[in-house]
Amino acid sequence: MKSLVSVLTRHVPRKYLQKVSGIGQRVFTLLYAGNRVMCPVCERKFRKFMPYGRLKVRLNALCPNCLALERHRLMWLYLKEQTDFFTGQKDVLHIAPESCFIDRFEKLHGDRYITADYESPWAKVKLDIHTMPFADNTFDVVLCNHVLEHVKDDIQGMREINRVLKPGGFAILQVPFINPLPDKTFEDDSITNPTEREQVFGQADHVRKYGRDYAERINRSGLKALPDDFAQQLMPETIERFCLPKDEIIYKAVKI
User: Fold this and answer.
1) Which of 13, 114, 174, 178 fits a 20 to 30 Å CA distance from 97?
2) Do 226 and 256 contact (CB within 8 A), yes or no?
3) Domain limits of the chain?
4) Is 135 exposed, middle or buried (0-12, 13-18, 19+ CB in 10 A)?
5) 149, 208 Cβ separation under 8 angstroms
6) Residues 178-200: what's their mean pLDDT?
7) Domain 71-254 = CATH 3.40.50.2300
């Protein structure tokens, strides 16, 4: 199973995996039935979560039912416990929407919940994050997770997020961090070989490796970065029950 997961995630484009994911969900939900772990997103229980990963396959990572990964389960808890996201309808822009969230967020926020992406089959709006087709001060919340490592100019993308946010609104801007973590974010357009790009940046379609200066990059866009160690404040039994990434920092950014 670990080898199959690695091959699929490395060599099959994400948009195609998304289109056929429903078939596997029905099968693996039955195969992984149990009570040891629980997904807070779909509230289903399993004997364990499925493995997932590209270069390194992680155990207990993927929910067989809703396809939430560790970071998605953490994000759900954070939005629920540390923000007002779940208290009444809001204008929400969800860039590169994760399948585990779409129906649940749409049920909560209705037509005010807008999904957007360059190629996702689930997105309502096709867009380029560098020049988004929305008016200034449109959204209360922007969700943009594991997107900025793919785009040509991440700071311009964040400037656009700042522009479309309402004053006082917030964005969640998660990116992958790969050890060893550099002090400065590393970019090198001269690395064109896919295998080498995967080794340097984590994926062949990544264009940078983020460093300890990520919060500074957010601030350069006009947003105010508010890194949150929410995961480290959770009880050990909560982390074990939901299989959460205990060292991940939540990068919330607000429009001031």
Assistant:
1) 178
2) no
3) 2-67, 71-254
4) exposed
5) yes
6) 95
7) no
